[in-house]
């Protein structure tokens, strides 16, 4: 792929506006299925999927194809199309399907725009709470149009730590997670993508997870970084399409370094 110049502020603003239009368009689709009877299928990776997931992703794909036919798409339910394109949209129609099917409103829709393989725009939309975080490269992250900021927590012993579930860890990962949570102030479970929004707004200090797919974390990156936080894999490397699904998001660089030390020591 030929390298193109960075996107201008105006280009990013236009893509951000379009992404939020997408989120607006599919909110009614996901809301209409929430807390209603659903047919639940099990995918090859043992994760659940419903007609709500498929309907939302289909609507997103149709809208993107209409407005940007030369853009690629990488979605949870229907895979990749034109993944070699300069611009690729990452779609997670319902992040937190287990929460969705159990009546918990802390699920969301995740949208990311990748330019030459790197996320430059991310949206975390929480339909049932009417909350939306938006992040773009070079700009401050926003919650419902107002700038948001991570906490100033720099000490692991003072940190509120979240993970979606202890079930996402196994073996050495679980031991490392337990070591980290024992050093933190508080450990809480649940939230899926909502935990990362709470981190971007300064309510949560640390989120640590494993087993994520690119569509689970690509949209989070511009939001967390735009709010002043740090998000990497467990080795401290930037997340990408090729990452192994282990994610550490921290409110400050200092807290991130402390978490990395604990995880690294426990994994060796």
From TrEMBL:
Name used for this protein in its record: Histidinol-phosphatase
Gene from which the chain derives: hisN
Family statement: Belongs to the inositol monophosphatase superfamily.
Enzyme Commission number: 3.1.3.15
Pathway(s) the chain acts in: Amino-acid biosynthesis; L-histidine biosynthesis; L-histidine from 5-phospho-alpha-D-ribose 1-diphosphate: step 8/9
GO biological process: L-histidine biosynthetic process
List of residues binding Mg(2+): 76, 92, 94-95, 216
PANTHER family: 3'(2'),5'-BISPHOSPHATE NUCLEOTIDASE, PHOSPHATASE
Pfam families listed in its UniProt record: Inositol_P
Keyword terms of this UniProt record: Amino-acid biosynthesis, Histidine biosynthesis, Hydrolase, Magnesium, Metal-binding
Highest rank taxon of the organism: Bacteria
Source organism phylogeny: Bacteria, Pseudomonadati, Pseudomonadota, Betaproteobacteria, Burkholderiales
Cofactor: Mg(2+)
Source organism: Achromobacter pestifer
GO MF term (any one): metal ion binding
